[in-house]
Amino acid sequence: xxxxxxxxxxxxxxxxxxxxxxxxxxxxxxxxxxxxxxxxxxxxxxxxxxxxxxxxxxxxxxxxxxxxxxxxxxxxxxxxxxxxxxxxxxxxxxxxxxxxxxxxxxxxxxxxxxxxxxxxxxxxxxxxxxxxxxxxxxxxxxxxxxxxxxxxxxxxxxxxxxxxxxxxxxxxxxxxxxxxxxxxxxxxxxxxxxxxxxxxxxxxxxxxxxxxxxxxxxxxxxxxxxxxxxxxxxxxxxxxxxxxxxxxxxxxxxxxxxxxxxxxxxxxxxxxxxxxxxxxxxxxxxxxxxxxxxxxxxxxxxxxxxxxxxxxxxxxxxxxxxxxxxxxxxxxxxxxxxxxx
Length: 341
Prior knowledge:
Layout: E1 4-8, H1 17-34, H2 41-46, E2 51-55, H3 93-115, H4 122-135, H5 141-145, H6 147-158, H7 173-187, H8 199-208, E3 217-222, H9 224-233, E4 243-246, E5 274-279, E6 304-308, H10 318-322, H11 325-339
Parallel strand pairs: 1-2, 1-3, 3-4, 4-5, 5-6
């Protein structure tokens, strides 16, 4: 039986889905080789070991009339609510403000989680404390008035950290805030289309269309995609022998966790195994031990979290995770178990 392999991407601007799929597969092949599965790489990269799909929904974040891929084009939190007049259903000033507040809360929780690390280097701790002050100024008056500006200012400080610093990733604090704003826009359940279907439902519909209802599907989800995949799989009736989540924000206590549906958080009934991976320098993956609060399904499946360590520069991309043998090894083994080869 040929299984289906579905990749679910996370935050970011409009992308070339075919190019991303190629990058993810090459990274997984690298990790699989390091895990001792060199003999199975041709089946993975050639596509004959699985029916491989890339569940793309990034274009749904583009606001009508918006330009570019920054905060005004695809995200929400720009300095001083930049782009608030971009238009589109559900994208008025109130919706923008709600998105920006959620981004600021997400960042504050991520910073607080990182500050609990006793192994922080002094320079890193200083940057984090400065960012926290920008997110929650003493007295609160300034911070309450401008959540988008708070987020951008804090990200300017956070971009000095090893896990965010990059020449090829997010290019600025404003763009970074915009990308993080996609998490808020999904969880705020607004922006209906002409038929009244909200943005989050349209995104899940894209992912559901990639799943196989009759045969087994291995799902690899990254970043915001872990939230989308979890919610989608709760309505999926097919078999999912393995779910892999990478750099997930599901553990963010206030900004994300209570907004995910259904509640309480639990492993979908269709999932036979769930592996969750996080990198210490990935600030998006705050509170990464998902098994501490995700309830098991009827088969006693719950997430099992493991830490991986990348090269310390721009660690959030999915390819960085997939290149790790701890991630790619179980992926190839799950596909092999289904095919029996």
